[in-house]
Design a protein that fits this description.
Structural class: alpha/beta
Bound molecules: ribose-5-phosphate
Distance between the termini: 10 Å
Number of helices: 8
Helix content: 25-40%
Order of helices and strands: EHEEEHEHEEHEHEEEEHEHEEH
Number of strands: 15
Length: 296
Amino acid sequence: MIVIGGSSSEALASGVAKELGTKAGALEIRRFPDGEKYLRILSDVKGQNVAVIQSIHHTPDELLFEYLLLTDALKDLGAKKVTAFIPYFAYARQDERFKGGEALSFKTVSKLIESVGTDEIYTIDMHQHRVLRSSEVFRIPSHNLSAMPLLADYVKKNGKLENPLVIGPDAEAEQWAKLAAERLHSDYDVFEKKRLGDAHVEVRPRKSNANGRDVLIVDDIISTGGTIVEAVKILQSQGARHIQVACTHPILAPGALEKINETGVVGVFGTDTVPSTISVVTVAPLIAEYAKKTAG
Ligand code: R5P
């Protein structure tokens, strides 16, 4: 099995290769003077199972195109099987037509990924709010893994939680709150969220009371930070003791982290699906575990 990372996930690919006791395959990627992309695979991939790791962030269109060039070339060069590991899958949020005439981006991106010969795909905590299973979109075998157990383990290892409570800031976060709570042997609840604009949300509590408890807020994405800030305000008004925030994909729009830190939370962290200053948990062992399985 050869592990190859695209330009968004080179470090992660090296981590996965290390877990598998090998070295990541090499690529040469540069731009022609007119801005077009040049990609060359420097490893011999003929007859090999290849795991391609490429998060589609921070420049989603470019990184998606790079994935298409890479996988098409791998198949053309005789790779036996290409398994895509797309830790952060961009465009999953545009999974329906909210306003007449909108592009169904999720569907288009999925079709493109299949069209170059991807044999199987793994994502991590993909935004699945209305589409509940990736098999509703992909025709190739697809799997959505979760980094929540790894994030919860990090919390456990790095500080004692007194009377812990896990909170998901909206109904969709219940899947992640449940996983983290199982790991922390705690209870969990979710808030109700209404999106008022790209950067504005309204969050309301449901039944839990965080008074005197250490709280871990979990979500798939932190983008503008608006969701987390509103959730923190509720927990503080209930009298929560220490509040920590964990997310799988720290997309972090400008100012997001500062906004969250100003609330006085004791920690904000995420994984390296999207490399950032708070990416302290690596998903390399998770990807390596499934890369091994997929190679058969
Ligand atoms: C959407 O519902 C997601 O699960 C996240 O809650 C959302 O993307 C966070 O966005 P923001 O940080 O901009 O509030």
